[in-house]
Amino acid sequence: MFEHLVIFKFNDQTTLAKQQEFVDQLLALKEKIPGIHELTAGINQTEETDRIQGYTIGLRVTFEDQQALRAYGPHPAHQAFVASLNGWIENVIVSDYPLSN
């Protein structure tokens, strides 16, 4: 298994409703892209507000293996989501790592 973590920072014009729209799009990827074992996404509700640094959506995807993760990036459904971020996104942090048994 391989874990993929993403944290999104949106520009000031991105409403809560628009952020929820992005979360819904992310959640739909599980049914569209093969090799996804588990996928969760949501709007940040941490109480550690001094540590948010403007990042408001988190994504966690567990892939069957590293090859499934590699196939995810160029998949048309993922690319459509990435294109939908145009004009809304300020920054993204990504971390990928193998899950130990």
From TrEMBL:
SUPFAM superfamilies: Dimeric alpha+beta barrel
Domain Stress-response A/B barrel, chain residue ranges per copy: 2-97
Protein known as: Stress-response A/B barrel domain-containing protein
Classification via Pfam families: Dabb
Cross-referenced InterPro entries: Dabb, Dimeric_a/b-barrel, HS1/DABB1-like
Subunit structure: Homodimer.
Lineage summary: Bacteria, Bacillati, Bacillota, Bacilli, Bacillales
